[in-house]
Write a structure and sequence with these properties.
Blueprint (H helix, E strand, L loop, with lengths): L1 H17 L13 H17 L1 H10 L4 E4 L1 E3 L11 E8 L2 H11 L6 E5 L4 E8 L2 H10 L8 E5 L2
Parallel strand pairs: 1-6
Antiparallel strand pairs: 2-4, 3-5, 3-6, 4-5
């Protein structure tokens, strides 16, 4: 009888704990299918809420960093401008390439490497900071941790 109660207790505990679900956070590290869905949703929201995005840009904290970097072999350095929107940073180049390939349908992302060996995935580059900041506001639901990178001279 003791074993029966133990089994029932364990099953009940398993059921209770198994029913809990951890909320997933937005970011660059979601599975590919979730990323594409989120991007579609973000694109629709950004078109419908242009004024809201513009207003939220003024409220956004500045996420800007200046560091020396170079474009990795095979990437087009001519597309880089002053203000680069970074959507991911990786120690492993293969991980950066994975994120890059996810975004290639809608953008022409570029991978750069800094002096510490970190691979940065740049989604898009602009000549002015305000436009880069607006882009970050548009992609916030997909890349909450996006930031602006400026080449240190």
């Amino acid at each position: 009888m003791k074993n029966y109660k133990l089994v029932i207790s364990l099953l009940t505990l398993t059921f209770l704990l198994g029913g809990c679900k951890v909320k997933e956070s937005a970011g660059a590290y979601r599975p590919a299918e979730d990323t594409k869905k989120a991007q579609s949703t973000a694109d629709l929201k950004s078109k419908a809420n242009t004024q809201t995005v513009t207003e939220s840009v003024a409220e956004m904290p500045d996420k800007i960093r200046s560091e020396s970097f170079k474009v990795v072999d095979g990437e087009d350095a001519t597309a880089l401008k002053t203000y680069n929107v970074v959507i991911g940073s990786f120690q492993n180049r293969a991980n950066a390439q994975g994120l890059q390939s996810l975004m290639k349908g809608d953008y022409a992302p570029i991978i750069v490497i800094n002096e510490q060996g970190m691979f940065r995935v740049i989604l898009i580059s602009y000549d002015d900071y305000v436009t880069a900041k607006q882009k970050i506001a548009q992609i916030k639901s997909q890349f909450d941790d996006a930031w602006v990178l400026v080449q240190k001279k």
